Amino acid sequence: MIRSAFNRDWEFRPRSGPFAEFMGPPGPFEAVTLPHDAMFARERHAGGTATLGFFPEGAYEYRKTFHVPEEHRGRRVAIEFEGVYRSAMVYINDEFAGQRPFGYSSFAVAADNFLRYGEDNEIRVECRTHHDSRWYCGAGIYRDVHLAVGGMTHIPLDGIQVTTPDVDEERAVVDVATVVEHHGPTRATVDVAIQICDAEGAVVATDNTVVSVFPGEPATVRRRLYVTDPALWNVDTPALYAVNVSLRDSAGVVDEDQATFGIRTLRLDPQHGLRINGEPVKLRGACVHHDNGVIGAATIARAEERRVQLLKAAGFNAIRSAHNPLSKAMLDACDRLGMLVIDEAFDMWTHNKTDHDYALDFPTWWERDLEALVRKDFNRPSVVMYSIGNEILELGNPSGAAWARRLAEKTRLLDGTRYVTNGVNCLLPLLRDVVAEVNSSGADHANLNEMMAEMDDAVNTISASELATRRTEEAFAVLDVAGMNYADARYELDRELFPSRIIVGTETLAKSIDTNWRLVLDNGHVLGDFTWTGWDYLGEPGIGLVGYADQAAAFAESGQFPLLLTASAGDIDITGHRRPASYYREIVFGLRKDPYIAVQRPSGYGRETMSSPWAWTDTVSSWTWDDPAGSPVRIDVYSDADEVELVCNGETVGRAPAGEKHRFRAEFDTTFDPGELIAVAYRGGREQGRHRLVTATGPLVMVAAADRTVVRADDSDLAYVAIELRDADGNVQRNRDRLVEVQVSGPAVLQGFGSANPVTEESFIDPGHTTYEGRALAVVRPTAPGRITVTASAADCDDVTVEIHAR
Question: What sign does the CA torsion over 708, 711, 717, 718 have?
Fold first, then answer.
């Protein structure tokens, strides 16, 4: 079937229902272009859900009128949705056509029986979200929609599956399995032509055969083609091929489709770990949620691509989707750019984590949703593992282990070319025992709370216990790779207890990356580390914030509206700006030789901090402060060198050891002296690199720059305009934030505008937003070809204009 874009000319409104309409006219519809986040435009308030960042839950409806030509009569027509959050109900011409409870599955609705040919038709989609997520989920038709049309004999959606079972330097065997369906009254016989093309479009292999298909009995055409001198896909050279399949009869082409794939091999064993094309690969991993920051959950292709680009530039080579299937757009980017993927299916199975979550639908829908996940991923070289769950509550009992086996075996049945893992938190199967032990000991619950506040140490200790070993043994045994959340204490223990067990740190703490990465490097059976989290996200507010003990009351209230919006955790903030933890990680990975200066806020000097295990330190890479000169300050310099020298205004502050033995940190206590701060790293007595900070002074200068000045003139592209407040020399004025107004002219709309401030009441859909530490980000979506201008205005600054061309 041939897909075509179906994102334009939709309308949306909060759903009122037919009986409510008797009481008064429903609210007006608003024109939107998909993908669209229905929740994002709603006003945050105290009655909203805290885990969602205080956005309100609700029900929504979308509609679109579309013409179906008479010549489509006798053909197959389907509407494909890549994701609707949540509990989607689809109606065509007011007749029920299909549904999908899960908010992350691609699904198609057969439209043939409901269409009026030669006339206009209406499709309507209802969806809703109600206390069903532990983080900001968004709502509505937030991923792409396609119209798919094919003849009575056709290749169904995602009907081409490609594997490369035998690869060497001289040639690759490419197995192409194509499903052919026929819905006519009698059997059909068609020719099947297959072409494989390289990245430049050159044909490198062909095959032709014939297939007879009976009505209602799909036929799989499986052909082996041979590509000589194959370009192998890996993270450094992500070479891609395309396979084109066409069906022909005596009248010509009946149907055609294409699939993109890569040629690569995977091997796994406890000694060498994961090998791609025979080369060992350690996973430098980032967990990521699905929202796109200042544009909400709208899964626009360029937003997904940009995230992958920035994560890779920060040193990551792998993504774990948290905790739901990745979008096709992000997987496309991972294939093109060279990013490995653990694609995760579910955050819960049969036990609820929130009142109305997917556990209510899991027993009925899990197989279809797992099938959708694998069907989406099958041809993608970036996907190396499927994760069947995350911190599943029932894993510690026999029923939970049986469910794990069902999911793992179903996944292998669907795709035997990749590995199966599960993000297991070893504490959860023992949680009832831990609580019972605390109660029976006569200790008050404050001790349990204190233990949980030090969650990383407590989880590690409990995860390595004999009881945890017994409770999780069966659940781990069904996996190819044991995914462990916050359980690095098991890594070396399990090398002795379970010599065949292969481990990946599916979720770890940023502050432990140095010790965790050493475990990864020293143990072949440990494949890599996935930090929580690579990119900050909306909702689950404040888990990464740092506060002070002398403000404990205010810190305890920080989870109440309207203070918190984001998790405030992650190497990269919601605008794409790297935080200090990102540079530290890059140094630990061995990818950065220059040191990095992280200054703890002078106002916090000497004060006891309060934070969760997911927090970093209260540091900023800046030498611009409102504090008076002479104020005491703690400075961390991250470096893998032997020694770091800190120099302020030409005078040496001191020298301190760094490198792995000192957790890649050189620490200095000094005073704030405005001017120039330089860190110089030395290895073997010779300079290895340096990092420089300069105090911003003088008048504000607002600057703006687009990530690209030429964009595609379609709704899948975006231009990201970074706005900064600087001084005349280009130093960021992080302490002089201003309200910035943005105006967009030309064929484009302002898709989102905001900052990385985790504590704000401002909206991302308004044209005005206050900078945070001197920065803000405007996202512009083209609507047609032409010249687009983005003008930013702020008090005490000259206006600045950026020009973008949509082509």
Answer: positive
How far is Cα 103 from Cα 89, in angstroms, rounded to an integer? 12
**Residue 89 CB burial class (10 angstroms; 0-12, 13-18, ≥19):** middle
pLDDT tens, position by position, 20-78: 666 666 789 999 999 999 999 999 988 888 899 999 999 999 999 999 999 999 999 99
CA 97/CA 109 separation, integer angstroms: 6
> How many H-runs (helices) and E-runs (strands) does the chain carry?
13, 48
User: What's CA 165's distance to the chain center, in Å?
Assistant: 29
DSSP state of 600: E
CA-angle at 650, arms to 644 and 654, nearest 5°: 35
Residue reference for tokens 């109606």: 91
Whole-model pTM above 0.90? Answer: yes
Per mean pLDDT, which range of 155-169, 212-226, 456-470 is the poorest? 456-470
Half-sphere exposure of 164 (CA within 13 A, CB side): 27
- pLDDT-derived band at 428, boundaries 50, 70, 90: confident
Query: Is 218:179 a contact under the CB 8 Å cutoff?
Result: yes
- Whether residue 198 contacts residue 190, with contact meaning beta carbons closer than 8 Å, is answered with no
User: What angle do the packed helices 513-522 and 580-588 form, to 10 degrees?
Assistant: 20
Q: How many angstroms separate the CA atoms of 532 and 194, rounded?
A: 43
For the chain, what is the mean pLDDT?
Answer: 94
For the record, the structure tokens of 229 come out as 């001198």
Cα separation of 480 and 500, whole Å? 10
Strands 318-321 and 283-288: parallel
Structural domains for the chain: 2-149 (2.60.120.260), 160-261 (2.60.40.10), 266-535+570-580 (3.20.20.80), 595-694 (2.60.40.10), 701-806 (2.60.40.10)
Question: Among candidates 353, 511, 485, which has minimal Cα distance to 425?
Answer: 485
Identify the H or E element spanning 473. helix 466-477
Residue 321's SS3 state is strand
d(CA 550, CA 326): 42
d(CA 513, CA 530): 9
Candidates 236, 235, 245, 242; CA nearest to 261 is 242
